[in-house]
Amino acid sequence: MTDFNSFHINQTACHKAHNALHTTFRTIALAGRPRGDNNLQMHKNLFQWLSEKGYHVLVERAVGERLDLPAQHIADFEEFGQLAQLVIVIGGDGNMLARARILARYDVPLIGINRGNLGFLTDIDPKNVYAELEACLVKGEFFVEERFLLTVKIERQGAFVAGGCAVNEIVVHPAKIAHMIDFHVHINGKFAFSQRSDGLILSTPTGSTAYSLSAGGPIMTPELNAIALVPMFPHTLSSRPLVIDGNSEIAIRFSHSYHTDLEVSCDSQLTLDLTPDDVVHVTKSDYRLRLLHLKSYNYYKVLSTKLGWFKNS
């Protein structure tokens, strides 16, 4: 598959490569677990439509088995990454996040059909799904945008014992609600601040419109190389969100007098347990999520629509 790592180096060459990418689409994967029969019907309809267009179609195993598809059309995520040139995710942002964390390591582009609520990561309107996919697959009217992920590792007695990655955010918080934690944050080996609060959100630009936004964090445009550190209900009026360079190495340590169990969550989907003696390390991941957008995609229009910024006439 064509290598697009030069995206930020040569924009002209990149646009030509993206326009030609659609000609390399041979195998297309359908991902996303439906919440009801309507979504399952969309999987079935898309499978038939893509097959009629001449593509070899792979379907996520749980859905493919429900549709009673032949074995050669049923696959796991690893097979998606190894065999597909494009993955279409059907569902809301939660479906996209769960698949993106796995598929980012394979460098395969993803595009989403929004069957959820907000849909910041899923562009295609289900009412216009075939026309928009036709523009993408046949006419090549799209571009590919790269988003970075965060990696978290738990250090215990000098060894890493657990880890995970996140597209939106990593959250450090107590295992029980209504408990505060005392912690110290170091950035690039230097002490940055101490805090007593309900926890700390470490957000990518992608996640700045998710949990971080609800906690009062800043909105960061996707192309920024930045991480936002957003306190959760801090026990001081002077605490504010902090935006730092995306290549920073962050270490979080806890007060020795603290004894309540702690957790680290990745995109609110993966949870890691830790103790007050552990150290939480957060850095940018080596993997990048490649989102395929139609040429009509406008990030600021998405913000205006999803956040209700339209001015009443």
The oligomeric state of the chains shown is single chain
Number of strands: 17
User: Percent range for helical residues?
Assistant: 10-25%
The topology string of helices and strands comes to: HEHEHEHEHEHEEEEEEHEEEEEEH
- Could you give the distance between the termini? 48 Å
Overall morphology = elongated
Which spans have pLDDT < 50 for at least 5 consecutive residues?
1-19
Mean of all residue-level pLDDT scores: 89
Q: Give the count of helical stretches.
A: 8
Give the structural class. alpha+beta
Question: In percent, how much strand structure appears in the residues?
Answer: 35-45%
Lateral strand order in the biggest sheet: 7-6-17-14-9-10
Biggest beta sheet attributes: 6 strands, antiparallel
What is the radius of gyration computed over CA atoms, rounded to a whole number of angstroms?
21 Å
